[in-house]
Amino acid sequence: MEKELFEKFRERRAQGQPVGRSLFRRVSWELFQTNYPTRDPAEFRFSNRWFQGYLGWHQISLRTVTNKASQLPRDFGESILSWLRLNRRNSRYLPGEEGGLAEGKHRVGQYMLQNICNMNQTPVSFEYLEGHTYNQIGEKSIWLQSSKSGWDKRQGTIQLTAFADGVVRVKPLIFFRGKGTGSTIMSEQRLYDNRVVIKFNPTAYANSSNMLEWLDEQLVPVLNGQPTLLAIDLFSGHKTEEVLDTFRAHDIMPSIIPGGCTGLVQPLDVSINRPFKDLLKVSHTRSKS
């Protein structure tokens, strides 16, 4: 009966459904009735000790939900396959081109690795405050000092670009909220690192204007006029007529990642953004100590 209960648990979790103690108890009761129809119902026991032992045996624990989605990863399978097929079709060699290696540089179809790239934006906090800290038992209010009031709630947007050959060709781009004018901003600019590009806009989020600036000022100059495959999010600012015209003018093929799939297949979202933010957090902590 325990094995059947575990299978019911796995089936419900595979469907993305919540599982609580009451579900374990209800299913256990149903299995007891099914497997032992002649037994006295009073013999059924669902003690806390048995339940904790059962959880430990099957390595089940009560966890905090970290992600919510209207669809589960397996539901995106066809969308991801269609996107991969599109990339494959667009990567085929052009008529007259040779496969394999060209001028000692690795290629994927018509694209050299230095011309296959992924761009992605992610929010960054002005200040990282820990959500937990050790404190004496019994105190109702747990305080944590912030550098400036409200800075832990403010954020900007950082835009990173990764190339398939691993070479950094485009500087990180940070969007701050505002117009980028005023005495405070002017004095602050002296502190900006020259390895980072700073832009301002009313929302601190990327838009089509920023996309055009980034293409003209940062990406196009490093492409050497070669065909380029650019993987980007399904975002309205990436698909305006002006942006699409710029793509066509510079032989850039936009590989639009299907909605909801960035956390599954986008290189920056899957492999880089999280450790990047962790490094920022460590750097911030060290600067305060």
Assign the structural class, choosing from mainly alpha, mainly beta, alpha/beta, alpha+beta, or little secondary structure: alpha/beta
Radius of gyration: 27 Å
Q: How are the strands of the largest sheet arranged?
A: 7-6-5-4-8-9
Main β-sheet description:
6 strands, mixed
User: What is the chain-wise order of helices and strands?
Assistant: HHHHEEEEEEHEHEHEHH
Query: What overall geometry do the principal axes of the alpha carbons give?
Result: elongated
The number of helical runs is 9
- Stretches where pLDDT is under 50 for at least 5 consecutive residues are 99-104, 142-146, 149-153
Fraction of residues in helix: 25-40%
Count of individual beta strands: 9
Overall pLDDT level: 79
N- to C-terminal distance? 55 Å
Tell me the strand percentage band. Answer: 15-25%
Walkthrough of the structure:
- With 289 residues, this protein is of the alpha/beta class.
- Among the domains are: 2-57, no CATH class; 73-127 and 206-288, no CATH class.
- The protein has helices spanning 2-14, 21-35, 48-57, 77-90, 183-188, 208-219, 241-249, 262-265, 267-288, and strands at residues 101-102, 105-108, 111-112, 116-125, 155-163, 173-177, 197-201, 228-232, 252-256.
- The strands form two sheets. Strands 7-6-5-4-8-9 form a six-stranded mixed sheet.
- Strand 1 (101-102) and strand 2 (105-108) form a beta hairpin.
- Helix 1 crosses helix 2 (21-35).
- The longest helix has 22 residues, at 267-288.
- Mean pLDDT is 79; it is low at 99-104, 142-146 and 149-153.
